[in-house]
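The aim of this short unit is practical: by the end, you should be able to scan a pair of folded records and say something sensible about each. We start with the first protein, listed as its amino acid sequence and then its C-alpha cells.
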Amino acid sequence: MQNKEEASNEGKSSRASADTVNSADRELSVKYIKLSITETSKDIGSKEDYRTFNKSTETFSTIDETNEWLKERYGGHKKDKMFVDDEKGNSHHTGFIFGFRNQDISHNSKWWLQQDWVEIREVTETPMDMEKIKI
C-alpha cells in the first residue's frame, strides 16, 4: 500500500514523463504559409458589386509548394496586388486579386466574372499557456 507522498509523487512523475515524450516528438513552434481565399463573382455585364460565394484556406510547408499551387490554380489569369492598411495608415502588400471568367460545366451554367482575393501570410503557431485554461 502506498502512502500519500508516494501516491502524489507517482502522479507527478507520470505527467512529467508524458510531457517529456510529447515535446521530444515535435517542435513547440510550427511555421507554415497560409492562404486565405475569398472567392467572389458577378454576372458578366452586371453593374452589381461582386458577391462572396466561398471562403477557403490552404496551407503549405514551403514557399516552393505555395508558388507551385498558385501557378497551377491562377497561372495566366489577371493579377492585381492586394493591400491592407495598418493603424497608422501605411499600406502593406498582403496578397493578390486574381480575375477571370468562370463557368460551372457540370450544370451547364452561363459564364460569370470571378475575382479571388488571396491573402498570403507566414504563420507561427505556439502552444497556449495552459495556466490560462480554467477547466
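Turning to the second protein, read its sequence before its C-alpha cells, just as you did above.
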Amino acid sequence: MDFSTGIPTVKAAPELFAAFGEVFHQTMPTITGLRSAEVEQVRVAIMDGEGGHLDQERYHRPVFDRIFADREWSWPEFEEWRTIFAVADSWPPNWKRAARGPEASTLDVVGMCELFDVESIKAALLGLDLSVPAKSSKAALTKLAAASASPVAFASAAPGWPNVRREYEARRRAEVYALLMLTMSHRAKSLHERRRREALGLPPPKRLVYIWQEAKKHVKRVLAKNPDAVPPFYPGDLTV
C-alpha cells in the first residue's frame, strides 16, 4: 500500500504482471497476420508502460490504431469459439454484433443482407434483374437474395458494398481486439489467483462467480467437456 500521496492506494503484486507476461507469450504468437516484430511492439506498449497491462486507458486505443486497425488478422481461439456459439445460436452477453459475425471474406448472402437496410437490399435485387414485391419485409428479401444470388453477384449489385464491407471489418476488428485484450488480462488474473491460493495452501474456490448469469450455460458446456477447465472459459469470459 502506497501512502506517499496522502491517499492510500493498493499496488498490484509483481506476480500478476509476470502472469500476464506468460499469458501474452502464449496467446499473441497464435494471432495470424502479425509479424514477430509487431508482436514485440505490442508487448512493449502494454507491459513496459506505467501500470503495465492494468492501465488499458494508456495503451488500448494506441495499440489498436497502430497494429490492428488497418490489416487482416485473426485470433484462432476466438474464431473457434465463434463457430461453436454460432452453431448453438447462443452468444456470450459481452460479444457485440460484429464480433458474432464471420470474417468479411466468408460472409454469405444472408450475412451481407444483415448489413443493409430494406431499400438497399431491394436495389441489389433489382440490379440482379429479379422481381421484387412492392411491400416485402427484410426477412423475405433476404430469403429471396439468398436463393437467387451468390455472394459475389450480390456484392456486385449491392449499393455501396465496398464501404459497407470496410465499416463491418473495422467494427469487427475493434470488437475482437477488445475481447483479446480482456481475455489476456482476465486469464492472467485467474492464473495469478490460482498460484496465490496454492502458495497459501488454500483449495480452489467451491463456487464460480458469474458477472452475467447468461454466461452460466456457456461455462456449463465447457465444464461438461473438461471438468478441469479454469476461467476464463472462452474469449471474453469474466467468470471467477
